Amino acid sequence: MNNDIEKVLYTQDQINERLDQLATTITNKYQNEFPVLVSVMTGAMVFTTDMMKRLAFKLNLDYVDVSSYDESSESSGQVRLVQDLSHDITNRPVIIMEDIIDTGHTLHYLKKLLADRGAKSIEICALLDKPDRREVEVEGDYIGFKVPNEFIVGYGLDYDGLYRNLPYVGILKRSVYAD
Ligand code: 5GP
Ligand code: MG
Ligand code: MG
């Protein structure tokens, strides 16, 4: 599995250190807010569980699963809800937990959905941001790291269902998906 990685971008230690920093910032802000943490499956699973252990305030955990209408054409921009929330978020502050912001279509869709449900506020916490690829304007409120325009795997992020269990974030070798 490690042989398929071109380059490690962030080690487990570097991720842990960054998560500590982000969690301190978020904890200061949400002390008396009682937000709902909405994790976007499946990529944000690892990030969400590691982050939430560091958040020192009352919260509810929830998740959604979304998928692109046409998986083959990446930039179709059509997003569909596959698994809905189980919490009523009316008047609740919401923090969306995402693995990576790429074109921005997923989070654009989710922000609108959660706003339509009456969320009191919506913030985005993403492990990674690939700003070069943005097609719609979406900004993360808490970002772990900016990454180059390469295909990233590990720490929850997959290629074809694989590599999610890597404890670090890295660039996948092109030879793995080129043919
Ligand atoms: P967006 O809607 O912002 O284009 O992309 C959202 C989703 O695409 C992410 O949540 C993630 O699942 C997937 N994605 C985007 N870039 C990458 C990447 O470099 N590696 C992996 N594994 N998934 C990505
Ligand atoms: Mg995702
Ligand atoms: Mg994926």
From TrEMBL:
Protein's GO biological process: GMP salvage; guanine salvage; hypoxanthine metabolic process; IMP salvage; purine ribonucleoside salvage
Cofactor(s) it depends on: Mg(2+)
EC number: 2.4.2.8
Pathway(s) per entry: Purine metabolism; GMP biosynthesis via salvage pathway; GMP from guanine: step 1/1; Purine metabolism; IMP biosynthesis via salvage pathway; IMP from hypoxanthine: step 1/1
Domain Phosphoribosyltransferase: 12-159
Principal location: cytoplasm
InterPro entries membership: HGPRT (IPR050408), Hxn_phspho_trans (IPR005904), PRTase-like (IPR029057), PRTase_dom (IPR000836)
Protein purpose: Purine salvage pathway enzyme that catalyzes the transfer of the ribosyl-5-phosphate group from 5-phospho-alpha-D-ribose 1-diphosphate (PRPP) to the N9 position of the 6-oxopurines hypoxanthine and guanine to form the corresponding ribonucleotides IMP (inosine 5'-monophosphate) and GMP (guanosine 5'-monophosphate), with the release of PPi.
Protein name, entry field: Hypoxanthine phosphoribosyltransferase
